[in-house]
Fold:
Amino acid sequence: MNKQDKKQKWKTKKEKYNKYLRSQEWEERKDKFIKKMKQEDRYHCNGCGKKKNLSVHHFSYISYRKLGPGKEKDSHLRLLCNRCHFRHHVKRWKNNRSPEARDARRRHFLLNREYEEIINK
Structure:
């Protein structure tokens, strides 16, 4: 497989994942995870401990890749406040100045903002 094929394969996987993040299936999975965290009294940011403006973060993509969308293990998800979630992704992308990384940062921020608006209604 040449470099161009690998790049296209990665792009296809990323598009599929981003589509999943906008799906009803992911909304249901997030709601199920949040409900479980509230029942176990663990509804707080895993980064700083805040209890407001939380979003679900894929800590690991292993179960997403192996089991498929909507079947991620709870141990591969984390609750993060929007600040910690954004910091996590910025830290990961901060040295990457490509247009793709810039677009990914912007898209991720907008998805979190939309989710926050829905939750806080």
Summary: The radius of gyration is 15 Å. Residues 3-119 form one domain.
